[in-house]
UniProtKB/TrEMBL annotation:
<feature type="domain" description="N-acetyltransferase">
    <location>
        <begin position="5"/>
        <end position="185"/>
    </location>
</feature>
<dbReference type="InterPro" id="IPR016181">
    <property type="entry name" value="Acyl_CoA_acyltransferase"/>
</dbReference>
<dbReference type="GO" id="GO:0016747">
    <property type="term" value="F:acyltransferase activity, transferring groups other than amino-acyl groups"/>
</dbReference>
<protein>
    <recommendedName>
        <fullName>N-acetyltransferase domain-containing protein</fullName>
    </recommendedName>
</protein>
<dbReference type="Pfam" id="PF00583">
    <property type="entry name" value="Acetyltransf_1"/>
</dbReference>
<dbReference type="InterPro" id="IPR000182">
    <property type="entry name" value="GNAT_dom"/>
</dbReference>
Length: 185
């Protein structure tokens, strides 16, 4: 979609980016509470510093979709950010090693440390732009983040990378989007 741009939130995130991330996340929790492990009632009480910490967590890359032509610094437009998705990098997932799914044909490679696992979290697209390709653009950019992430063995060879996500089984539109992007169940 030529009117939509995907923006990587830099770290440390600016105050403007923290505010925008806070607004879109709370909007997502209000609009689609079934899609998240967190709740609006809990997150609405987080401080600005809590949100800043969330966006700036080492090992996390957060993407935001916004409409072209809208100033990235203009905080007044509620719909400026119309989607979000975060990539959790392997350094964030080491303590979750056993919690992440492992496909049977990759189990040995994962156990031997030959595969780096990345996890997509926090995917949400504003209802007014669903079906317009925003989710696909976010996923495509998230996969680019994974591709660009260094992942080497001690011998300098590139490790294989695999991307996981968790989606509510009742959310058929999201499941269809992920299948279209090449994910398997």
């Amino acid at each position: 979609n030529p009117k939509i741009t995907i923006y990587r939130i830099s770290t440390p995130a600016s105050d403007v980016d923290v505010e925008k991330y806070t607004r879109i996340r709370l909007d997502a929790l209000r609009t689609n509470p079934e899609a998240f492990s967190s709740t609006y009632a809990r997150d609405v009480h987080l401080t600005h510093e809590d949100w800043r910490g969330r966006v700036n967590t080492p090992g996390r890359t957060t993407l935001a979709a916004h409409r072209k032509g809208a100033s990235i610094d203009a905080i007044g437009d509620e719909e400026e950010w119309i989607g979000t998705l975060s990539v959790l990098h392997p350094m964030m997932l080491h303590e979750k090693r056993g919690d992440l799914p492992s496909l049977p044909h990759l189990a040995a490679a994962v156990k031997e440390g030959n595969v780096e696992r990345f996890l997509l979290v926090g995917m949400w697209v504003h209802p007014s732009v669903r079906g317009m390709g925003v989710g696909g653009m976010l996923i495509e950019n998230a996969v680019d983040v994974v591709r660009e992430s260094p992942s080497e063995h001690s011998d300098g060879k590139e490790k294989a990378k695999i991307v996981f996500l968790d989606v509510c089984s009742a959310n058929e539109n999201a499941r269809k989007l992920y299948r279209k992007a090449g994910f398997v169940e």
